[in-house]
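Key result, reporting period 2: structure in, sequence out.
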């Protein structure tokens, strides 16, 4: 019951009587005479529960509840109504009030309502604390999902975050490799130092060399003053070399020397300067193939590939697609101040079935487009791009060509159902959506699967 109560009533005798009664019972209580004064007080100092009359000059208690709910969602409001004001009390609840009491108010009844409000606040704050603890434990900020493939990546991040080893992050374009790099930095002892990122494929070799290693005054035409490169700017933090597979061969030689010697030489300079930053690289290319085809140096590959962290494509995270879509919708709703839009069942099935060659980036583009096309409260199938509407599920791969080793269709179905269930963390409702069946059908399949499971 620790917290501050603010009584709002234009009748001085009523508010002072209630305030004194609550103070005698150990509550921290203050009073104001209008809704405007209440809003000013809540803006300037902490208030937990507002107890307000409905009928007041100026802004009414109903409008006050709406303002508090919108601007200060952590402040609960209790409205006091006259005998004939039940409809107004219901209106206040609809605008965000937590509870209401009839006037004249008995202090015992008000105390019960306050106890309920403080208990509600306590639960709400505990949920927020637990969510914050979960977010703090999660190594990849900004990536949502709980699929088995994603969990393997996050577990690897946890294991190597405290290490100084050079890390190579691999994955297709749009999977979130930079988010993994940032997570490595944020979970490491270097978190208070700079995180510096550069796309190695976005500039020619001479400019890239200057950006990475710096230059001295007069090194080239526009070098009017000396400048430290990103390796030095990163200090004791992390330097992230994105798309390192795009780096020209002549730069690969120079990068290899830098990583071997842990020193950099500015363009046009004579002196080697040591750097202390951790090096994290990323690529969407198969560097082993690039090495075989002489497009990437083998010695540099082994130098940057001390620890490899693969980031799974979205098609390997089918159970995360709807969760990610909802997260994107929430972000759009917050940015545009529009009500949150849901995803219709037929659209959800297509989102789950699609292969997502562009990964999370393509999903974000798809949801943005769907919201723009949507004229109601749900994203319908016809709001999705045509290629997603017309997409048919990919083939089911069979791991053998030998008829003797092939398995019956019922066994294939059993394994697939179990794989889907595992990928969504055991959530049967979510698994049913992925499979395109209702929950009862899923339960029946699971019962048959368990009965026929040859394992002990």
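The corresponding designed sequence is given below.
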């Amino acid at each position: 019951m620790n917290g501050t109560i603010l009584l709002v009533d234009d009748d001085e005798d009523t508010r002072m009587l209630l305030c004194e009664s609550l103070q005698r019972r150990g509550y921290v209580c203050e009073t104001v005479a209008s809704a405007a004064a209440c809003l000013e007080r809540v803006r300037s100092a902490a208030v937990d529960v507002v107890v307000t009359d409905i009928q007041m000059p100026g802004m009414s208690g109903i409008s006050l509840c709406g303002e508090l709910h919108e601007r200060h969602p952590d402040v609960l409001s209790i409205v006091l109504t006259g005998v004939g004001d039940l409809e107004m009390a219901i209106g206040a609840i609809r605008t965000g009030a937590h509870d209401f009491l009839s006037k004249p108010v008995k202090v015992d009844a008000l105390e019960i309502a306050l106890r309920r409000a403080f208990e509600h606040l306590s639960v709400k704050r505990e949920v927020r604390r637990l969510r914050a603890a979960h977010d703090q434990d999660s190594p990849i900020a900004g990536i949502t999902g709980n699929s088995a493939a994603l969990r393997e990546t996050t577990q690897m991040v946890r294991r190597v975050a405290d290490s100084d080893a050079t890390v190579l992050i691999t994955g297709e374009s749009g999977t979130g490799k930079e988010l993994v790099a940032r997570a490595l930095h944020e979970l490491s002892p270097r978190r208070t130092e700079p995180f510096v990122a550069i796309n190695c494929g976005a500039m020619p070799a001479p400019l890239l060399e200057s950006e990475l290693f710096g230059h001295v005054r007069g090194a080239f035409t526009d070098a009017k003053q000396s400048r430290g490169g990103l390796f030095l700017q990163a200090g004791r933090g992390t330097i992230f070399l994105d798309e390192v597979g795009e780096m020209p061969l002549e730069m690969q030689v120079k990068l290899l020397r830098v990583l071997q010697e842990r020193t950099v030489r500015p363009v046009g300079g004579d002196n080697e300067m040591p750097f202390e930053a951790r090096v994290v690289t990323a690529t969407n290319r198969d560097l082993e193939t690039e090495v075989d085809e002489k497009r990437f140096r083998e010695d540099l590959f082994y130098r940057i590939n001390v620890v490899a962290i693969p980031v799974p494509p979205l098609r390997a995270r089918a159970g995360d697609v709807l969760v990610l879509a909802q997260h994107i919708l929430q972000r759009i709703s917050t940015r545009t101040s529009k009500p949150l839009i849901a995803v219709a069942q037929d659209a959800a099935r297509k989102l789950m079935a699609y292969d997502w060659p562009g990964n999370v980036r393509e999903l974000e583009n798809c949801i943005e487009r769907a919201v723009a096309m949507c004229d109601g409260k749900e994203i319908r199938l016809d709001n999705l791009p045509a290629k997603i509407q017309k997409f048919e599920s990919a083939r089911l791969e069979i791991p053998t060509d030998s008829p003797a080793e092939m398995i019956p269709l019922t066994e294939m179905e059993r394994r697939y159902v179990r794989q889907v269930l595992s990928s969504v963390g055991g959530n049967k409702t979510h698994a049913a959506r992925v499979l395109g069946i209702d929950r009862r059908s899923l339960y029946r399949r699971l019962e048959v699967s368990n009965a026929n499971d040859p394992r002990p």
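The CA atoms of residues 353 and 387 lie 12 Å apart. The chain has 19 helices and 16 strands. This case is discussed further under Risks and Mitigation.
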